[in-house]
Specification:
Blueprint lengths: L1 H11 L9 E5 L19 E9 L5 E8 L7 E3 L20 E8 L1 H6 L4 E2 L1 H11 L7 E5 L9 H5 L13 E2 L1 H9 L4 E4 L13 H8 L4 E3 L10 E9 L7 E11 L1
Helix pairs in contact: 3-5, 5-6
Length: 255
């Protein structure tokens, strides 16, 4: 009888996430010939046709092979990317990839300063309006750079192979340090890196990855999300031993 009652209770309980009460937002840039990769990448996204057309059995059949560096398009930076001994792509806990999300908007600052870095004061101002960022939260930074995709020059702010020639906004070290104090699950941004464009020491990567926290870069449509209330599902290609990989990321936003 207790088992029967439990089964009836579970059957009557509402789902944890009621999909009828949320809108889904795709936060992923499609991968293709225009996909942007870090300037030092030896190649971009390559899709080769293995077969497309009628098969011997008379039905239509298509199949392709693809090749790409790990770090390009909407992708994961696994902690091992900048921290030896930390989680590789296949080992990042799901709790860091599927979690409640908040959005910090610095698009106004970035509009006048293309290498703006999120400050500790920016985070504290956000918390004054919205409440303290809770442990296990995915933090997404909105800079407005997503609207520049996939214009390489506009998005990177420079065309040289070295990072010092690049011009785009992102996180600052002290802001990242505060977010780590909040025990966040992951950081994401709508630019090419969680370090601002001209960074040559990649201090935010070193700090964040060193704390075993992953990053999501080139995130699309961040402007479609509220400051808080969304749930993010960020599932990367599960590359064994990888330092990152292509990411399919979506958000569930309450209607």
């Amino acid at each position: 009888m207790p088992l029967l009652l439990l089964s009836l209770a579970l059957a009557a309980a509402p789902p944890v996430v009621d999909l009828a009460r949320v809108r889904m937002v795709d936060l992923t840039h499609a991968f293709g010939a225009e996909t942007l990769y870090w300037p030092t990448s030896p190649s971009g996204f390559e899709l080769k046709t293995l077969h497309r057309g009628p098969a011997e059995g008379g039905y239509f059949y298509s199949a392709y092979s693809f090749c790409a560096p790990e770090h390009g398009g909407t992708h994961l930076d696994a902690p091992v990317h900048f921290a030896e001994g930390r989680h590789a792509a296949e080992a990042v806990p799901l709790e860091q990839l599927v979690a409640p999300a908040v959005v910090v908007d610095v698009s106004a600052q970035a509009a006048t300063d293309p290498i703006y870095r999120l400050t500790r004061a920016d985070v504290e101002a956000w918390e004054k309006r919205n409440g303290r960022i809770e442990p296990g939260t995915i933090v997404l930074l909105r800079t407005g750079w997503g609207k520049r995709w996939p214009d390489r020059k506009a998005y990177f702010g420079g065309e040289g192979p070295g990072a010092s020639t690049l011009r785009f906004p992102s996180y600052g070290v002290e802001a990242a340090r505060l977010l780590l104090e909040r025990r966040i699950a992951a950081l994401g941004v709508d630019t090419a890196s969680i370090d601002h464009g001209p960074s040559t020491d990649f201090a935010v990567h070193v700090l964040v990855n060193g704390a075993d926290v992953p990053a999501f870069e080139n995130v699309a449509n961040v402007d479609a999300l509220p400051e808080r209330g969304a749930i993010v599902i960020a599932l990367p290609m599960k590359i064994a031993g990888g330092s990152g990989g292509p990411l399919r990321i979506v958000a569930l936003v309450p209607r």
